[in-house]
Amino acid sequence: MTTRERLLASSMICGAALIVLAATPAMAQDTEVSEIVVTGSRIQRPNLDAPTPVQVVGQEKLESQGLENVADVLTTLPQFAPAFGSARTQSTFSGTADAGLNLVNLRNLGSERSLVLINGRRAPSGSIDDNGVDLNTIPSANIKRIDVITGGASAIDGADAVSGVVNIITDTTFQGLEMGLSYGEALKNHDNQNPSAFIRFGAGLDRGHVGATLQYDYQGYVSCADRYLCSEDFAWFPPDDPVRGPAARSGVPLGGRFFVDAAPGSYTFDNGALVPFNTAAYGYNRNAARTLAIPTERILFAADADYEVVDGITAFVELNYGSAQVNAPFEAHPFQSSSDLVAGLLEPSIPTDNPFVPASLRALAIANGDTEITWWQRFAGLENRGADNLRQTTRLAVGVRGDRDTLFGFGKDWNYELSYVWGRTTLDGRSLGLVSLDALYSGLRVQPTATGFQCVDPLARAQGCVPINPFDGYNQTEQAWLVRSGGVRSASELENALAYLSGTVFELPAGPLQVAVGAESRRINAYEDYSTEINEGTVAGNKISDSERTDFKTDEAFVELKVPVVKDLPFFNEVNVEGAYRWSDGYNVGTYRTWRYGGDWSPIPSVRLRAMKNRAVRAPTLGEVAGIGETFGAVDDPCINYGANSNATLRANCAALGIPANYDPPLTVIQNVGGFEGGNPDLKPEVADTLTYGIVFQAGQFDAMPDMFRDLTISVDRFQIEIDGLINVVGRQNIAQLCYERPAGQGDVFCNLLTRGTDPSVPGANYVLTAIDDQYQNIASLELKGVDLEVNYGIKLGDIASSLEPWGGLSISSSWTFYDKATVIPFPGGDPVDLLGAAGGDTSNVAQGWLERQGSTTLTWTAGKFKTSWTARYIGEAKSAPADIFGEDAVVDIKSRWYSDASVRWAATDALEVYAGMNNVFDSDPPFFPSSQSGTQALDTVPAYYDIFGRQLYVGLKARF
What we know:
Layout: H1 3-22, E1 54-57, H2 59-63, H3 70-75, E2 80-81, E3 105-106, E4 114-118, E5 121-122, E6 143-149, H4 154-157, E7 164-170, E8 176-186, E9 196-204, E10 208-219, E11 222-223, E12 234-235, E13 243-244, E14 257-259, E15 267-270, E16 273-276, H5 279-282, E17 291-293, E18 296-310, E19 313-330, E20 334-336, E21 350-351, H6 359-367, E22 372-378, E23 385-404, E24 412-435, H7 437-444, E25 446-448, E26 453-455, H8 458-462, H9 476-482, E27 483-508, E28 511-530, H10 532-536, E29 547-569, E30 572-586, E31 590-604, E32 607-618, H11 622-625, E33 628-630, H12 648-656, H13 667-671, E34 676-678, E35 686-698, E36 713-728, H14 732-741, H15 748-751, E37 754-757, E38 768-772, E39 774-775, E40 777-796, E41 809-825, E42 833-834, E43 853-863, E44 866-875, E45 878-879, H16 883-886, E46 893-894, E47 897-907, E48 912-919, E49 952-960
Parallel strand pairs: 4-7, 34-39
Antiparallel strand pairs: 1-6, 2-3, 4-5, 6-7, 8-9, 8-49, 9-10, 10-18, 11-17, 12-13, 14-22, 15-16, 18-19, 19-23, 20-22, 21-22, 23-24, 24-27, 25-26, 27-28, 28-29, 29-30, 30-31, 31-32, 32-35, 33-34, 35-36, 36-40, 37-38, 40-41, 41-42, 41-43, 43-44, 44-47, 45-46, 47-48, 48-49
């Protein structure tokens, strides 16, 4: 779909709204303001009165940056980190199954440890690899607010709520008709185009309400070729200087690279002449063909209805549908006949009797006694790699809820809910750039005929074999024979039944003793089915096995209690204690128990101290218990130039393998370390203990506070998270380091996972690092500590001076997170690895760093019909990656960054609002990271922390009737 067509689609949605408007009586929008009640408890109360910290992301934040995707909004908050490998700007190399996902990463503990709810109920996951909900499939137009519970919540909401809960609250009381249209783009190259449109409708019934939202959104393609960040290949291995341009290019060129036994070096062709290969002269620029931001087209629908059947009993239904179409292209496969073996066994080399072999190359091979030529070639002449994915999510929630003054004379203020959620996510993914290796093998074995050439193998000829000439590009006939169509189909289905009862058991002197009891039953069924060619490794690329259809069943019962202890006494204005307990029976992992206890103490009405201790769990997912996949990527061999390394143990271990002290392989070797990563059916749930404690100050509750300060609230909360049995791979870079940094014999468990052998680009060497294998295990433990600070303040300028009253009011909202400890022990008995103060890390999610300081502040001025806001986002100074993993000399300092966003909104009439804004006002460029340290394969920075688009402009309008 072209940009014009996308804009037309957006306009058609708005046009449909006008048609509906013409046929619908106008209804006033519901403007009643009710007390915000947050989630995190079946016994609800305002956030600032709750013992568990909850950040409420309201409409002002949702509108201040013009972002239409929920994930993009949340990632700007300091409690969140980039979803490494699972975001629009970070999943190009994540494989077909995960390309284009948009997940959230609360506390940088991974999307699989962040539970996402819609109106307090579960939603299906976006991928079988974890339970993270793909926020691409959730509309933003009908969101009322987002509650972020920053602490373990498994006792309340079940498994996976380790880092907390993101609860998306939709507007189920809206009345009237609203439509919106917006467009944004990055100004530098007029890319990242973002046309978006929505209509929503709501109507009150005699005893209920009905509403619906339809939204279209497109986030456009951004090519690496259009950004200095990645327009040229880049390599940086400190303490060496960074290299950008020809010297950093791939040694797998477009025109081919040919290796002849006993002949020195390798060769290529330059204007028909056989010449020695040189990377700077003939290498391939991969970055120019890569995607920086994946184009994503979304169609979203949501509907809700409720109806009071009889007094005290209300039936409700919610329906969600979202589709996300993504296309994630990147450079063609770097074919290497020495490693791209047919089914892992047979090398598709070029026989010297192939009639297409140029005379000069044939003569060189014959002179050196070589009958089979090893060759490398970038298959851009066939098809670039990539993923073309359609991900669709459907969710249906039905149930009844109600309230009763008393239960047969027992207690009071009872409320209850019985609900059932069904959800399903399907993926139809097509892998691009699949070149059949067995077809290539057959096509390279050619013999002449009276009329031309034919494949030697008669069976291959019967299948349509086409003679292949790899020296002059590939024509359409050759492409048709070599390129295969394949990919992956997967589905994840959720069923969740919930029943609970909550109310007051009796009154105590300090207030009501409240209780909630309930039961929950959950079933997740998932599978992942790859094409046979991918299963068998007969096409170029990674070999991946299927994940068979598997059921994960959990039955649970829970209870929650809140006890008021003291009220209205000197220095004890209010004291409450509460606790919760959940018993869970996991069909696949056995029984486990989660709990929480804590309370709050308000010495005076304006001050409240709160604390909560939690036990939380995360159950393993299908992607962790099943399947095995091949991987290739950059690993910095610890034995490269080890003679200059200060670690004597490492020097001794590398020398024992016969590796020269000055061993310095080409960049191609470092960037193409293979291996397999696989699931483990014996995994058990992770267990986390979390503690939060803090203080809340509400100036409005202090009688002596001047009016100009009454809207000031401040909360400071300390958090501590300890996870044992953390499910993860050790990490391929970790494995390499641990093998050689431990005394002889002590690192064997890691060295056994490494493979060293030969590589044509390092003649005569049998010690080249070619592969590292890894597997998921309950192997790691992690400890995380820090502080959250939140300040909110609003003032009417007329409270300062009456003459300023026409100038409206100011409000400020500021949120900061400070980490002071982030330590992982990657395996039992291992040394602690310090992850604090690093922005990036290895591609393994136990090896990502934690920034020490991160914050966001929004200043809003409202005057009459105008509202202007300025948001400043701070990313603190950091190391590029954890020094304990990469080595002190291999990491660099990354300077702090401020990003500024501005917006203005104008209520042109009571029914029409127009707005415009600019993000990254000062056009701050992202920093470069050393190779393999950004936390995501093939990226040289960390998107989401650091803006990669440059200055962006957006405009829009909303009409309400």
